[in-house]
Specification:
homotetramer, disordered N terminus, alpha/beta, 7-stranded mixed sheet, 4-stranded antiparallel sheet
Chain lengths: 291, 291, 291, 291
């Protein structure tokens, strides 16, 4: 998977701070004078909150600062001065992702098809499920499948076990591909803004269970799907991506469920892709998704 | 407006009843054997509720039953036997519509542009408002504008006055084009499923006031608009039409409001159009919108 | 796969004929008086060509005409009288589909995921390719993969071989899932309106090779995909389904290709689904796709 | 219209040049060190052509360089050095727009509704038409209407007359709102990339006359509209905006024409809006449309 040549390695800086005149010029100048060739820059100023957001990516080939010193240097020079939050990523580190799934295959297939086609710079070493059903799919793609059944009684210890597994497999982020379990606060806090869920409605409409049934009852003309980071409040985390499709009176609930699958799989995959590409910043329960 | 030639006059039957084998054949046969040439037929069976819905339109030119006898005859022959709800419309009756508006012009312009271009078979004899602002627009199109200011104190009597006006102008249905007043139960019940509202969100998300602000707060990636029949529960009536548009982190609330206008005007106009064309049936707080 | 219970077997009639008063009543009456319970009916009248189209499906459980006699009886009673084209299908016959593929996996995965999830009432006994690349995918799903390399020199005989294979596997229709070979007239005529292709543009724009490059050159703001029946004129057959996605100046050709994949796979799968469901009629190089 | 306060006046720079390390930092630094507060910055690098594009907007309130000296200074300091194309605009200059129209009102109404609602920072002093039909609409909005009938014989002199009129009214750019005349090369060259047209198809499909009829014939499932700058090649100029809507076999040509109107008016208005906001750059027959 990691066929990126050394010479093309890039550093990506994701940051936000209170907006101040000259911040963009300062950061880009820092990269430029140290020999970094910027290959991507996108920024956004939230004029209501007065916050400056930026994603900038530059080639390390002729960058004069050693990679392990970039972060401390940046921290020393700017972070405190500008009251800046930032994250630094290197393109030759391939993030490691776990998929949690229950009984439905559509999101799983969509992601694994992209993964095996080499479309995503990610490693997927493990699939976790509270049901045995998807083992066959995992095996088709040669990915470790761990069946961890959950009951009311064993939930806490099974979660502990799962957390262990995440550590063991050095998992960076988790994708809930129609995983029908509510994670505990403890679990969620172990992966802050690093658990991506797909909810089968255009949130905030139809929070919780059986959203397609609720949509049918309400008589909506559009159904949707929403991918978001999981927070401790159910279906209320920062939204990454949403989409809808048109339905009509001719569609019974079973059609909504069926049509919704295409929405769910694309919305989830597109959100995961943006996460892998380090293109998402969160702020006050909202996301900045750079293009 | 009423340039429909006598010879082309059609009758339109909108109906629903418990589904029964042969109901479609029975009704179409009734039309056929009496010399009616069917120019439109669409039907739908709700298999969960087991209800049959149909819209059928036929030319009256060679129809042997006099138009004033169709309804009683149909009632006698079928309605009771099949426990049928039905409405009969003739194409040479031009329905009369009132527009209620507050301070925003976009929906008003969109409808009046279609109206004056002759796209809608409707008469719009009057525009009612709780503000004087839109008088100029009404005058541009030569339509009577009635300014009926509403305060907490005078609301009941002003509504009574408005109802009188509706009677005087023989209004068949009312369109709320961003009318910022909540109608009383009494008023709504005077026009059951004959008041069309536009709400500036994809209902049931963001019911009530300031939905764009709420959408911004929640960080959604899509904003929507919903046209529905007004019932006594706020923003909860049968949905006729919905649409959405994509937004991003770059859009402050003011942009949502601005982008939303195009949604609102098209969604409302499309809903009104379907109503004018007698293409909507309601059942259990949901709509069947024939194409 | 064929877990449909005998009792629920239905017959589906797809037909068109010159429009005539009473045709709908006649056909539905025929079904009704012989004990058939209609579970689906949709019809359409093309008022410009004056053609009546219908799809009607009824349960055979209490139908008094033996299934093998329905077609001849219908032919005798109505087809000639009304100058009618019709096809009759029984729901307990599972159509057999072959997939032709070259080197790209996305459409293949999307279809096989639906297939193995049991979403489609179809059998896919074979995948044919002019390249060996997709063998691994086929094997993952346990489907026979036949590698039939094609050069200018051997094209005719390889096609003959392929046709033999289609016969051997009793293939009803073929899906070209980004199959990068132009089929001969002879081959196409062996499967009239039974070969479904996906073209990676919104036809008729960008016919032929490299449509994404052409789209980039032209500077379009939308890219599309089109599924159509293959006819002997390149990319000019009856269109079944189309969709588009938005692009911007930020998207180089490689992005168009990448974004286009999601379009291609959904548009193709939706078209194949409609074909499997016997919901498509073609007339004068256009399709009627019943909902 | 020009209610922008002096203090809030901004300068907007639109530019492109061969990409070079440091160009972004250089320009933003120039603005910063001279006291300009940047309120908008968006840039794009075309990596295939290796061209850097930028739109930057800053407040003039504390900018130390007098406004009339910005352009020459920028030219002297950077334009030649970087082989840069640039345009400078000030927010207190309200651009002047002419609308050319033939017989259809929908685009005209949509633009005039936005204009009179104060949504667009533009002046529309004149509407030109080769037909008298739209005079009434123009009068409704109190805008000068000039009827300039065109025949094969008088085309050249009528165009000369029209050009005179544009000069007299100091017109900056022209919007063809379904104007059914082909402009001469001479006329087009007088307004390079300053004539915006709406074509009623998703270009490059269905170039030329009667695109809806052609779309119907081809049996497409989507119809579109395209707004573009007019160049001397018919319907081949740089595309600004496109959109589509779904149709089905149920839609005769008349429906395509009708449904297309909503597309046309929104696509055109959105394109005009971007032009007014100085958010469009063109390069090699393609547009960069900043968000």
């Amino acid at each position: 998977m990691s066929k990126i040549e050394k010479n093309n390695t890039t550093a990506t800086l994701l940051m936000h701070c209170p907006d101040k005149q000259g911040i963009l010029a300062t950061v880009t100048r820092f990269i430029n004078i140290n020999g970094g060739n910027i290959v991507y820059l996108d920024q956004h100023v939230d004029r209501e909150e007065n916050i400056f957001f930026m994603r900038v990516e530059w080639e390390l080939a002729n960058f004069t600062i050693p990679r392990e010193e970039i972060e401390p240097m940046f921290d020393r020079l700017y972070a405190q001065k500008y009251n800046m939050y930032f994250r630094l990523y290197f393109s030759d580190y391939i993030p490691r992702m776990a998929i949690f799934v229950s009984k439905m295959a559509h999101c799983l297939y969509d992601m694994l098809a992209r993964y095996t086609a080499g479309e995503w710079k990610v490693e997927i070493p493990i699939i976790v499920s509270n049901h045995p059903d998807m083992r066959e799919v995992a095996e088709r793609f040669g990915i470790e499948y761990r069946y961890i059944p959950i009951t009311k009684e064993n939930k806490a210890e099974q979660e502990a076990l799962t957390l262990e597994l995440m550590k063991e497999y050095r998992i960076d982020f988790i994708v809930l591909a129609r995983y029908m379990q509510i994670l505990s606060e403890n679990f969620i806090n172990s992966f802050p803004h690093r658990i991506i869920n797909i909810h089968h409605s255009f949130l905030p409409a139809f929070v919780g269970a059986k959203p397609y049934h609720a949509a049918y009852e309400r008589g909506v003309k559009l159904i949707g799907a929403t991918s978001h980071y999981v927070t401790t409040e159910l279906d209320a985390g920062p939204i990454i991506e949403q989409d809808i499709t048109r339905i009509s009176h001719k569609d019974p609930v079973s059609n909504l469920i069926y049509k919704g699958r295409d929405l769910e799989k694309l919305v989830l995959s597109h959100a995961v892709e943006k996460h892998i590409q380090r293109k998402i910043l969160t702020y006050h329960n909202r996301t900045i998704v750079f293009t």
